[in-house]
């Protein structure tokens, strides 16, 4: 599979490395035309408001809103995918969830832990950095993982959103899940 990582801001190279470790081809995406060359897109962690500004500037916002491309967002990327963001306008409107930014409290701005994720056999290494959490998962959304009753991983059809940053560890299990269980399965279902 050819998997793109939106390369406007944030943890881009780390995701490329995980795509390659999972045995697939990773491409840094800087223009909307490149979207035609890929089977799935990763929206990295970083700063969602900065990413949104750059996405508007380079015409990604409209293009991705109208696209069915499978997408996987981590942290800021999850915020970009959500249909509702507490206290501000939403971005790509793909995942039927409400997210709250920076919601894991000031004193625990960052932490790392082992986490069980539905669909993945072994626990994954999860790094949370000023992480959002999913306040509510609405119709059509499957909850894949929670931390202290807070939803931190969800899937809806070909979209995957998680609060934390697997790309900052060497654990590429979630990337493998995205590519092999979501992107590949989605292609099988598409009429040719
Ligand atoms: N706090 C950031 C935001 O709201 C997300 C943090 C991250 O991606 N590590 O966009």
Automatic annotation (TrEMBL):
Entries under SUPFAM superfamilies matching the protein: Class I glutamine amidotransferase-like
One short Pfam family name for this protein?
SNO
Catalysed transformations (reactions):
aldehydo-D-ribose 5-phosphate + D-glyceraldehyde 3-phosphate + L-glutamine = pyridoxal 5'-phosphate + L-glutamate + phosphate + 3 H2O + H(+); L-glutamine + H2O = L-glutamate + NH4(+)
Keyword terms: Glutamine amidotransferase, Hydrolase, Lyase, Pyridoxal phosphate
Segments forming a coiled coil: none
Q: Which PROSITE patterns match?
A: GATASE_TYPE_1, PDXT_SNO_1, PDXT_SNO_2
Name the CDD domains for this protein.
Answer: GATase1_PB
Q: In which pathway does it act?
A: Cofactor biosynthesis; pyridoxal 5'-phosphate biosynthesis
**Hydrolase among keywords:** yes
Q: What does this protein do?
A: Catalyzes the hydrolysis of glutamine to glutamate and ammonia as part of the biosynthesis of pyridoxal 5'-phosphate. The resulting ammonia molecule is channeled to the active site of PdxS.
Question: What is this protein identified as?
Answer: Pyridoxal 5'-phosphate synthase subunit PdxT
EC number(s): the record gives: 4.3.3.6, 3.5.1.2
Q: Give the source's domain of life in one word.
A: Bacteria
Q: Where is the active site?
A: 75, 165, 167
Cite a single GO MF annotation.
glutaminase activity
Q: Which residues bind L-glutamine?
A: 46-48, 101, 129-130
The record's annotation in NCBIfam families points to: PLP_synth_Pdx2 (TIGR03800)
Family under the similarity heading: Belongs to the glutaminase PdxT/SNO family.
Q: Which residues form the signal peptide?
A: none
User: What quaternary structure, including any partners, is listed in this protein's UniProt entry?
Assistant: In the presence of PdxS, forms a dodecamer of heterodimers. Only shows activity in the heterodimer.
């Amino acid at each position: 599979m050819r998997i793109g990582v939106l390369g406007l801001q944030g943890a881009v190279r780390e995701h490329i490395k995980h795509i390659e470790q999972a045995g697939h081809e990773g491409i840094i995406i800087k223009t909307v035309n490149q979207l035609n060359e890929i089977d799935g897109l990763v929206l990295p962690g970083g700063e969602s408001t900065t990413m949104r500004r750059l996405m508007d500037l380079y015409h990604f916002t409209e293009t991705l809103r109208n696209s069915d491309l499978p997408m996987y967002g981590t942290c800021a990327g999850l915020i970009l995918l959500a249909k509702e963001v507490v206290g501000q306008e939403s971005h790509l409107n793909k995942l039927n969830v409400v997210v709250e930014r920076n919601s894991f409290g000031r004193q625990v701005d960052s932490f790392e832990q082992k986490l069980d994720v539905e669909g993945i056999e072994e626990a994954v290494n999860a790094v949370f950095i000023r992480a959002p959490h999913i306040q509510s998962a609405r119709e059509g959304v499957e909850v894949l993982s929670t931390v202290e009753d807070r939803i931190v991983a969800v899937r809806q059809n070909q979209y995957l959103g998680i609060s934390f940053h697997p790309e900052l560890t060497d654990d590429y299990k979630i990337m493998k899940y995205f590519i092999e269980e979501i992107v590949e399965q989605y292609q099988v279902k598409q009429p040719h």
